[in-house]
Amino acid sequence: MKNNFIGEIIISLLLIWLLACFIKPIEVLIPDALHPMMVPLLAILFIVFSGFLWKEKSGDEREQLHKYIAARFAFFAAITTLIIGVVVQNAQGAIDPWLIIALSIALLAKLAGLIYGHIKH
């Protein structure tokens, strides 16, 4: 369990670093020659990260609680960020449809998870 925890932290930090390179790809973060490799690297890191999430197993109630707390924090942070993006872009006069799509998918996934949990348990 500890190796998965450390691996997930490393993959998460690499994903954050790579995403930061997309916002402002400066020479310090990633050399110009590697810019064409950013999208494939993002896909590979995301697949590895998804693998960590998919095979994650909780041993006892305490570990399960930690997993649920982390998921709630992540969901709240993502939804808050997307809503702030919608508000800011609305104030600027043009809303990026991807913000609305991402927000809607996150909310629908939350609903699907609630329904699935209710039916299965």
Q: What is the radius of gyration?
A: 17 Å
Distance between the termini: 25 Å
Q: How many distinct beta strands? A: 0
Q: Can you write the helix and strand succession as a string?
A: HHHH
Silhouette? flat
Oligomer: single chain
Biggest beta-sheet profile: none
Mean pLDDT: 84
Low-confidence stretches: none
- The count of helical stretches stands at 4
Class inferred from helices and paired strands: mainly alpha
Beta-strand share of residues: under 5%
The proportion of residues forming helix, as a percent range, comes to over 70%
List its traits.
121 residues; mainly alpha; 4 helices; flat
Describe the structure.
The structure is a single chain. With 121 residues, the chain is mainly alpha-helical. Helix content is 79%, strand content 0%. Helix 1 packs antiparallel against helix 2 and helix 3 packs antiparallel against helix 4.
Short description:
The protein is mainly alpha-helical. The chain is built from 4 helices and no strands.
Topology readout:
Elements: H1 2-23, H2 38-54, H3 61-92, H4 97-120
Helix pairs in contact: 1-2, 3-4
